[in-house]
Structures are given as C-alpha cells and as structure tokens.
Amino acid sequence: MTKIIGLTGGIGSGKTTIANHFMAARIPVYIADDESRKIMQSAEIIADIKKTFGNEIFENEILNRKKLSEIVFSNPEKLEQLNAIIHPAVKKHFGNWILDHKNSPFVIYEAAILFESGSYKNCDLIITVTAPLESRIQRVIQRDKTSRELVLKRINTQWNDDQRISKSDYVIENVNPETAKSEVGKILKILKIQ
To answer: Per-residue pLDDT for 22 more than 80?
Structure first.
C-alpha cells in the first residue's frame, strides 16, 4: 500500500523547493496548488465559480485569479465557498493520480492548507516546512508581484507554524538551501527504512 506523506507549510515557506528535492530523488510528488489551478480551468468548476462569485471576476471568459484572491482573502466566508468548490475536485483528481503511482512505496502530497482543508487525515506522515516570516513575505511579494498587505491577509487565513508543527512528524527549517536539502535526505533515509 502506497504511503501518503503530506508536505505543508505557510505561504512562502519554500514547500515547492522542498518538493523539488523529493522529485530529484525520483519520489512522485503531487502539488495540490498547481493541480487546483488546472482544475479551476475546467468548464464544470468555472460554472460553479461564476454561480458563486459572479461574472465580474472573469475577463473575456478567463478567470482573473488576482481579483478572486482579493475577494477570498478579505472574506473568510468567500474563501470557504471557494474551497467547497475546489477541494472535492482536487481530492478526486489526487485519488486518480495515486492509482498511477500505486507501485511507489510512498508519494508526497504537497499542499499549503493541508490541515485547514482536512487533507492531513489521509496522510500517513506529515512534513512541515518553516521559514522566518519576513523571508516568507518577501518571497511571495517577489513571486506573485503582490503587496505586503495581501500576503499578510493570506498568511492570516492559514494555520501558524506552531499549529502545523504540533501535528507533524518532521519539520524542515528552510533558511539555508544546503541544510534544507540535507534534511530532505535524512527524511528520505528514514522513509526508505520504514
């Protein structure tokens, strides 16, 4: 039976960097955020988003993700509505994906809101990635070309590091790239023994 290893951390903590280290070690990795972006382009999901949020967040029938983000990260109820549309679709997609990797001893399921979405309940083990708050803010501002205010709003919708760490089996502090890579190596050794 393939084990599911949850990989999580707050926005800007460097989860994708850590996921890439697992991929480099030929471990199958499911990036929930990337897959949800693709799923959000399906006709069924677009119809649900239009019904819930209206046509004003679409430009020429293309979802304006920035407008949607501004809405949901300013209103917890709207965020919940969006998650109710997206999470079941991602869960179904992951179920199909894992069938394609059933011969792997374990896979990595990377998700920013692993705990908040309840997905952690399907994981055998959990790895949390942490990084100093200011580093996280700067990474997201650079990556998403957004404002500090919007980044902080997003951070405040997520669990904090202490909450995540209390429910995790492993913690990777992503401050120094070499140390983080070495931590992944240590975890891989442990996982391959189990």
So the answer is: yes
Stated pTM of the model:
0.90
Angle at which helices 177-193 and 15-24 cross, to 10°? 50
What pLDDT does residue 49 have?
95
pLDDT at 193: 65
